[in-house]
Structure formats: structure tokens, C-alpha cells
Structure to design on (256 residues):
């Protein structure tokens, strides 16, 4: 019986100590320093919304090979300039060039023919590739541009919708406002339930959480040396949705 009484006393002391420590502020103040009739309560709430993706992003690449590395690089440079110029001529499109890589490729030596010991070694081949990214909130214009680039000889590496930074930021601001309104209402309701007449938020913490786009990627591989169509149709893309969450927590002071 004494052991049980001691255990219960310890739990009660710990329960009292936790809110005291939680309320400690600079200057050593604690919940015990509150005037009579005032109470501190911790509250939190979350908001979540699915937003239509508005930014279309495409990544295309140039692939080529040549026995002469200089001729190879000239081919890549010429085609990349043509693609970049086309992107810059399209309003509201941002273009960024990406990795540029040239490397030698030595073909596997052929097997000698029966009765012969000598084989003719194939000449080294140079291969190269470079990528570029184009993005815009004007999907139709971007898709038309990408179709032109494919017709030039560029290969599609990825096509996906995502959420633009501006739309993500404005959505988060709206969620924050809604969460704060809900948190204020919670504090007022808690005050009423405890017989208080006033509720003030002392500290507010906002956790934006982030957003989680799940774009559908389109990958394609192609041989640039193969036969090409007379005219390539523009690609097609449909936007998805991105979920954005916002959590707001606060410490509220309830007064008589």
C-alpha cells in the first residue's frame, strides 16, 4: 500500500512539473506565476488541400556520334543553339542547358575468320550528348515548342507537370490564414469551456510542411541516326494535383 501511494504521488508531481517546465519563459517565469483565474493551453491544427499543377517541365537531349570529335561537338553545338534560340523566341518559356558530355567508344574487336589470324581493328567512335530543360505555365505553347525540338532531332528525356513556386507560396499563405482562424476559434472555444471570457495566442509556430508533387514522367529513347518522320506531332500532357499541408500550433492564454 505504501509503495502504491508513493508511486501515485510521484506521478502527480511529474504531471505538475511538466506544464510548469513547458511554460517557462526567459526570466524564469512559469505557470505558477500566472495571476489567479488565468490558464495556459497548447493548441494545434492542420490544413490540407490538393492544388492543380500549373507548371509544365520538359527535358530533351541531343545524342550524336562521329569518328571525328571536333565534327561531333560542332554538330551538338549547332543543334543546341538552334533549340535554345527557339525556346528564347517563345514567350514565357524558361530554358536551361544541362550536362554536356563527349566520350570515346572503342568497338569490340571482331573475331578472326577461320584460317586467318589477322583482323582489321575498327576505328574509334566518339559519342556525345547534351540536355536542356524548358518550362512554362503556358502548356500549349510549351508543347508546341517541344514538338518543334523533337522535329529538329532532339530526344525527349522527360515531360512532367509540377506546381509553380508562385502558386505553391500563395496556396501556403491561404492555408496559414485558414489555420490561424481555426486555431483562434479553438482557443475561444476552450476558454468558454473552462469558464473564461478571453483567449489570446501568446506564441504561434507555423510548419509549412512542404508540397509533394507526383508528376507522371514520360521517358523516351531514340536512335538519332535512324529514319525520321516527315513531321513529328507535338507531345501531349495532362496536369495532376499536388497536396500541400500546413500545421499551426500555438500557446494560448485564457483569462477571466
Amino acid at each position: 500500500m505504501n509503495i502504491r501511494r508513493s508511486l501515485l504521488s510521484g506521478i502527480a508531481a511529474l504531471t505538475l512539473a511538466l506544464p510548469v517546465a513547458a511554460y517557462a519563459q526567459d526570466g524564469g517565469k512559469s505557470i505558477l506565476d500566472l495571476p489567479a483565474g488565468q490558464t495556459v493551453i497548447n493548441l494545434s491544427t492542420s490544413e490540407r488541400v490538393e492544388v492543380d499543377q500549373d507548371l509544365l517541365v520538359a527535358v530533351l537531349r541531343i545524342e550524336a556520334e562521329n569518328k571525328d570529335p571536333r565534327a561531333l561537338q560542332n554538330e551538338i553545338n549547332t543543334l543546341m543553339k538552334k533549340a535554345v534560340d527557339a525556346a528564347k523566341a517563345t514567350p514565357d518559356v524558361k530554358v536551361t542547358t544541362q550536362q554536356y558530355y563527349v566520350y570515346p567508344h572503342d568497338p569490340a574487336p571482331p573475331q578472326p575468320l577461320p584460317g586467318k589470324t589477322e583482323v582489321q581493328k575498327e576505328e574509334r567512335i566518339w559519342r556525345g550528348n547534351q540536355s536542356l530543360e524548358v518550362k512554362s505555365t503556358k502548356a500549349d505553347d510549351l508543347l508546341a515548342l517541344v514538338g518543334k525540338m523533337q522535329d529538329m532531332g532532339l530526344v525527349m528525356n522527360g515531360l512532367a507537370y509540377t506546381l509553380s513556386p508562385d502558386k505553391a507560396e500563395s496556396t501556403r499563405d491561404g492555408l496559414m490564414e485558414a489555420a490561424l482562424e481555426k486555431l483562434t476559434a479553438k482557443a475561444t472555444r476552450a476558454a468558454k469551456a473552462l469558464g473564461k471570457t478571453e483567449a489570446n495566442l501568446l506564441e504561434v509556430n507555423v510548419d509549412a510542411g512542404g508540397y509533394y508533387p507526383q508528376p507522371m514522367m514520360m521517358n523516351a529513347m531514340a536512335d538519332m541516326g535512324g529514319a525520321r518522320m516527315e513531321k513529328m506531332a507535338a507531345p501531349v500532357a495532362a496536369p495532376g494535383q499536388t497536396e500541400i499541408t500546413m500545421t499551426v500550433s500555438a500557446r494560448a492564454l485564457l483569462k477571466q
About this structure: The beta strands are 39-52, 55-66, 94-105, 125-136, 155-162, 198-212, 241-255. Residues 1-28, 214-229 have pLDDT under 50 and may be disordered. Residues 34-54+163-217+239-256 form a domain with the Translation Initiation Factor IF3 fold (CATH 3.30.110.170).
